[in-house]
Amino acid sequence: MHSWLRRLVYLLRQSRHDAELREEIEAHRALRAAHLASEGLTAQEASDASRRAIGNVLLAREDVREVWLGSWATWWQDVRYGLRTFRKNPAFTVVAVVTLALGIGVNTGIFTVVNAVLFRGLSAPRAHQLVSVSQSVQGVPDLAGQEAFSTSEYFAYRDRAQTLSGLVAYGNARGEATLGGDAPRKILGALVSCNYFAVLQQPPALGRAFAARDCEPGADLVVVLSHELWRTAFAADTGIVGRTIQLNRQQVTVAGVAAEGTYNGSAFLVGSYLAPINAGRLLTSDDSRYDDDNSLWLNLLGRRKDGVGSGQVRAELDVITAQLDRQRPGRSTLLTIERARPAMGQQLRGTATGAAVVLMAAFGFILLIACANVANLLLARGTSRSHEIGIRVSLGANRARVIRQLVTESLLLSLVGGLLGSVVALWSFQALVALAVPAMLPPWFPLVLTVDVSPDLQVLSFAVALTVGTGILFGLAPALHVSKPDLHGIMKQDSAGAGSSRRGGRLRGTLVGVQVALCMVLMIAAGLALRGLHATYTIDPGFEYRSVAFVSLESAFDGYSPEESEAMRRRLMAALAALPGVDAVASVEQKPLGDDMAPALFRLPRESERESRVGEVVPVSQDYFSVLEVPIVRGRAFTEDEVRNQTAKPRPAILSATTARNLWPGGDPIGRTLLWESPGLPVVNTLQVVGVAADAQLTALGQIDPYYVYVPGEGGAVLVKGRTDVATTVSGIRAAVRAVDPTLVVTVLPLEATLGWSRSISGTVTSLFGGLGVLALVLASVGIYGIVSFAIAGRYREIGIRLALGATAWSVLGLILRGTMRPVVVGAVIGVAAASAMSRILSSVLFGVSPADPVGLGGAALLVLGVALASGVMAARLATRADPTATLRHE
After folding, report:
1. Of 41, 97, 455, 567, which residue is 20 to 30 A from 439 by alpha carbon distance?
2. SS3 call for 24
3. Omega of the bond leading into 650 within 30 degrees of 0 (cis)
4. What's the whole-model pTM score?
5. What one-character-per-residue DSSP string does 178-233 give?
6. pLDDT 10s digits, 716-728
7. How far is the C-alpha of 67 from the C-alpha of 4, rounded, in Å?
8. How confident is the model over 809-864, as pLDDT tens digits?
9. What is the dihedral of CA 462, 467, 469, 471, to 10 degrees?
10. Which residues have C-beta within 8 Å of that of residue 646, sequence separation ≥ 6?
11. Is 688:696 a contact under the CB 8 Å cutoff?
């Protein structure tokens, strides 16, 4: 405190202290001169000797100021000097700031998205006390890979845990629910324990939270509406509390309305209602998860008691886990307790983390290119300031002092560019995310995905750290180079020669090579993604999709009895088949190229369970193959009786051609027997092959499943093939559904929309890498233009002499480009090698991307080299067109 007070007093009386300091130094000089004169020196000799003994007065005064004020005083002096120099060089300042704003801005923007998905905490009071609990079950094959908990496990942890003030459970309601009214709609919901709002400390905005009685057996069904549903479906009616609404054709009482921003199982999956944990079986007839001890469906979230650490919670829950494992011989469970974040399984979080790493690396390339560009600008500017820096060094400034001045100027540029870029990025990325997220979701995806990309402390900290790190990154290398000037050349006023040393040329060449290499990686990634996008539009998946409409009946008949549901299905199928222009109607359990595949185990009768193969079993109706135009290459299709009779043994089956070859190579599969069972179920079904269908890409584009089996049955989806355009067919389907039952809410889409999802993902990735590649190409071309221009500026006299002696413009141009384009070629080679790793990543996540695609790789590489060469030629041509006489006279 005394030191700070002393510095404050010095600032308030700085002019007086400076005057006293000058007087004191002069007094020292006079006393030393008097002493030397008393020893026999002349007055002039004594004065000169005393001045030499004291040394540089300006440096002495700066040393004293640092003692009084600390180093920040000279920092402030450097800041003011840097601002003055920038004001005198507006063109340099604008170019450097805009370049840095692009680099820092796009990286800050993408981090806001990554932060929202992976790092942002829950929006709940005292969120630091909340912990998520997940488990990994070993020793029970049917439960392997599961992270959730059963209902009985939740009750055990809730009742025995003493380190937690409360433990809540939540899970998604099964399927969509139909909200009745004048305009029926499908909505999503979550099932939660009745202490949910109390533990999260987020009371409803209207009405009440769930009470313990709401979770008791036989309790009346109540729900809490989300704030969004209350506003959109009920016009923000404050009298909604206590009213009865129709949900899945059942009367449900509204207990309350959740506050806006209430955590509802996932911070970015917006549900429309919350219901008690035991309400699933009341809302959906086939939801038996609450009573099934083998059904792991609940996520757990706890709040630590005051003064209790995560380690204590983990130790106590591990004891409870061991007690539960002893009740199930052979089972071993590993718990994971961590800070609560939005609900996301470990597998999904791993995928999201991998995508975040790729995105941050791609956007980081833009920042590195921007840093290399600005570093080259600073090198060129440092050359023009070599006379100034040489005088500083000659007057006694040490190298560290010069470096500090130059790095301070770099930090100023970075701070201004970072502030400008971050503000623009935080504003623009919110709009970009709103546009990009819907394009990344399947068209049948029922969830409303929202990503909160508003800035928080983590984003601001990242922006500050990135800005400061960037300033040091691009400023340090030029500062180290410029701070060691050639004083001999400077004293001869040969600033150009002083700045164009071989060492400086290598540094500039290295920076350009880095830009080209990074640009090459991004452009090759964009080229490969573009090839993948083209493949999604030109591929033949092996089935007809252009004239087929897809109708999802999932949860459409909830609330009806099984007999009523079956009768309604029959009426709907008949109404769809009777539509004008409809050729055929088929039923299927899993839509082609959908996300609802269910694995099955196959084996031949003579094989053991260990030899089982994993594949897909798809129930289809008799017209399925004619609707999708998948030919039966051997045997026959199913009959209507086989579809309706589900008790026949053995059940008939149709195999894909690849499945038949894999099971009976070179043999006739017709009449053969195959055993089929679903994981976790003890029932083994016997299948008898009655036909073989042609291969089709039904689970993923470009993929033929090794084991794909069709069985007769009716599923939750309908395929309708029409003779007219698919839009007319879709319109007719919706009219037919309303005619059968106005309360039915079904999803109707062109089947081509299943390919549209792959296309939209490829299109989004292509747009992303294409935009980054173009931005990198522009920055790299500017950098190449700058280095060629700089190289020419130091060789004007040489070029003039060559032209005067008869050299042609083309020969001079070739001479310049051979030297300056060498780092471009080296960077391109390195970039192609690095892009091979990027191509493997893209090929693993995008359809149609080959790591060795010659068109994608070669086209992007040629484009980068062509633009680089064009930039160099444009810069060099200006010198070759100059008048040699004027050039020599100028020199």
Report:
1. 455
2. helix
3. yes
4. 0.72
5. EE-SSS-EEE-EEEE-TTHHHHHT---SEE----GGGGSTTPPPEEEE-HHHHHHH
6. 889 999 988 888 8
7. 12
8. 788 778 777 777 788 888 888 888 887 777 777 666 666 666 667 777 778 788 88
9. 180
10. 712, 713
11. no
